[in-house]
Amino acid sequence: MSGDHLEILVTARQAYPRLEALFLSAQSHIRLGFRLFDPRTRLLSEDARKIGDTWSDLLLHTINRGVPVDLTVSDFDPVVANRMHRQSWQFIAIATALNEVADEGAAKLTARCVLHPASGGIAPRLLFALKTRKNLRQIADEANDTVDPQIRFHQMPGLYRMLDCKDGRVCLRRAAIPQLNPVTLHHKLAVIDEAVTYIGGLDLNNRRIDDPEHEQAAQQTWHDLQLISHDPGLAKDAAEYLRRLPDVIDRKGQMPAPKSMFRTTISRRRARNYLRLAPQPVSQSLLRDHLAWIAEAQHFIYLETQYFRDRRIVAALLRAARANPRLKLVLLLPAAPDDVAFHERPGLDGRFGEYLQARAIRRLKHHFGDRVCIVSPVQPRRPDQRDIDNNRATLANAPIVYVHSKVAIFDTRAAIVSSANLNGRSMKWDAEAGVTMEDPADVAALTKTVFDLWLGDDASYDPEGAFDRWAQLARANAARPPEARKGFVVPYDVEPAEELGMPVPGAPADMM
Fold it and tell me: Which segments constitute the PLD phosphodiesterase domain (predicted)?
């Protein structure tokens, strides 16, 4: 972004007020693309709260000022992810209804829920039919247990071909074999007036509201990072991405090559598909930049991610470790994925994900040896009645801090912030958006922000000395009682993932 003004926002307490301010100052147009965007999310800034309590109020205020808003949220597989499918359509219903109560002459709020059209071929559909039919029956039973099953039925438009509602009861259509729609829109992106870009890993809902101190129950923590860029070139590329994406993923258009440092993962439905579950890749520029900068790094790589599972990223790191004996790596992960840390019985997908991550970490340790430091953040206190009673929600006798951010730093030369995790799904399947930074001032600012937060006064920004600071602090914290620790980091413990993890023969690793 070469010197343009860049804001680095850590957690929703920093990011949401700035997004609210961008809405309040917008003049011509706002374009939004999120995995989750809940209009019921409470407003945080003093200026925004003057006009209402929730994002519904801010959206209404914006279109009443004459500024049109275009919102796209991701839809989800209505059988496998039924709760999220219903939730997305609820978001759209709330947003669309604002047009009905807007002032006369107000601008329009356009809201759409987009299901990525890539679907599994007939072979995987039949392979999983017993499971998906069972899910479908359960969805029908749950609908019939509600006060008004017909209302629940109409909240699930993705199931109209598979379910029916007769005489007030929801039932399965005969011989319905559910589709498999494994791909989602995972970006978190806003473009204001075609000039300002809000980009990173943070969706919009109340669950994600946390601050950099992370002083709340383990299951309520949420660490994330978002950027605001005033680079007009980046804004133009991001806006074009949001405009064209629905057509591109449906094979109805092409995505122009970006002229800025805007980077993406894009896939589309296959023209013919009988055997595959995976979509067809279109853009893998986020993967490409990660691989390129891993190969270029001379002294130090820092990776902060929700998931570490992608075999291409792992292989690139192993090649770099063999080629450069000076290279050191710090990897920051949550102590456990959210579907493991905060749930009593992880599903098969959670166990498969843990298997893939444990395998990746074993390979890192084997090839890097003492040149890799893998850490997780925890709160500087002991668990209490606020925290969920789950072993994986604690680490080193302290409640965990859940990490959702996606940051990569390579020496002092480059950094990547995006919506993409270091797993196969983000690198090849889902729609993702991010930015690669090569301006030294931007890289330095990001490094300082991230390192200061996790390490406190013990932070070091020198690529040749940073690794030792991270490793020493993590080891020292592990030996101290929680209340005496400095910063947040302790060594990541891979053993629980190894114990829980389970391979799933035939399941594509990129799905996780």
Answer: 181-208, 404-426
Question: Are the C-beta atoms of residues 186 and 432 closer than 8 Å to each other?
Answer: yes
Say whether both 162 and 186 belong to one domain.
no
User: Quick one: 109 and 210 in the same domain?
Assistant: yes
Query: What total of structural domains would you count in the chain?
Result: 3
Whose tokens are 């990490």? That residue is 403
CA end-to-end span of the chain: 31
pLDDT at residue 1 tops 80: no
pTM above 0.90, yes or no: yes
Write the CB contacts of 17 (distance below 8 Å, at least 6 apart in sequence): 44, 45, 48
Domain that holds residue 218: 6-118+181-234
What's the pLDDT at 2? 54
Task: CATH number of the domain at 504, please.
Answer: 3.30.870.10
In a domain, 107, yes or no: yes
CA distances from 380 to 337, 401, 480 (A): 20, 10, 10
The answer to whether 329 touches 284, Cβ cutoff 8 Å, is: no
Residues 6+ apart with CB under 8 A from 371: 321, 327, 328, 329, 467
The closest alpha carbon to 179, from 165, 159, 156, 153, belongs to 159
Lowest mean pLDDT among 1-10, 13-22, 101-110, 327-336: 1-10
266 near 258, Cβ under 8 Å? no
The angle formed by the CA atoms of residues 486, 361 and 505, to the nearest 5 degrees, is: 140
Q: Burial of 449 by CB count in 10 Å (0-12 exposed, 13-18 middle, 19+ buried)?
A: middle
Contact 225, 387 (CB under 8 A): no
Tell me how crowded residue 19 is: count the other CB atoms within 10 A of its CB.
Answer: 24
Residues 468-493: tens digit of each pLDDT: 999 999 999 999 999 999 999 999 99
Q: Name the nearest CA neighbour of 470 among 446, 481, 486.
A: 486
Rg (CA), the chain: 23
**Interhelix angle 285-296/311-323, nearest 10 degrees:** 20
* pLDDT level of residue 42 (50, 70, 90 thresholds): very high
Token pair 């996780």 is found at 512
Same domain, 196 and 307: no
Query: What is the Cα–Cα distance from 429 to 268, expressed in whole angstroms?
Result: 9
Three-state SS string across 390-404, please? CHHHEECCEEECCEC
Residue partners of 201: CB distance under 8 A and separation at least 6: 188, 224, 225, 226, 306, 404, 405, 406, 417, 418, 419
Give 61's DSSP letter. Answer: H
* pLDDT tens column, 287-329: 999 999 999 999 999 999 999 999 999 999 999 999 999 999 9
